[in-house]
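Incident review: delayed structure delivery

Summary: a single-chain prediction request sat in the queue longer than the usual turnaround. Root cause was a stuck worker, restarted by the on-call engineer. No data loss occurred. The affected request and its eventual output are reproduced below so the record is complete for anyone auditing the incident later.

Affected input:
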Amino acid sequence: MKSFLYLLAGVAVVLAASKTYQINYDVQQAEMRVSKLLRQIDKEREAIAVLEVEWAYLSRPERLRALAFTYYDELGLDKIYAENFGDISEVPMPPDEIGQAVRQIVARMN
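Output delivered after worker restart:
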């Protein structure tokens, strides 16, 4: 009977060690995936920052003004005058709460 218990305990120890090894391996794999994802996130954030800087550079008012002047005829642009703009009260507002709030603000402005 003692040898059966020893055998059972030995099998339990081997199973526990095997399961512990498997869990350890799974954790290492998960940590590697997490570190890879964190590196990818850092690369994407850096790429976004570069794109934001490029957008700011390309949308500078003086650059856009020069492009508009250069391509004035091709674009068919018209000069901007104050008469070209309408009043905010002329803009149709939706009949919901937001539209009512905008109408109240416009009424207070006038």
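Verification: Residues 2-58 form the longest helix (57 residues).
Action items: add queue-age alerting; document worker restart procedure.
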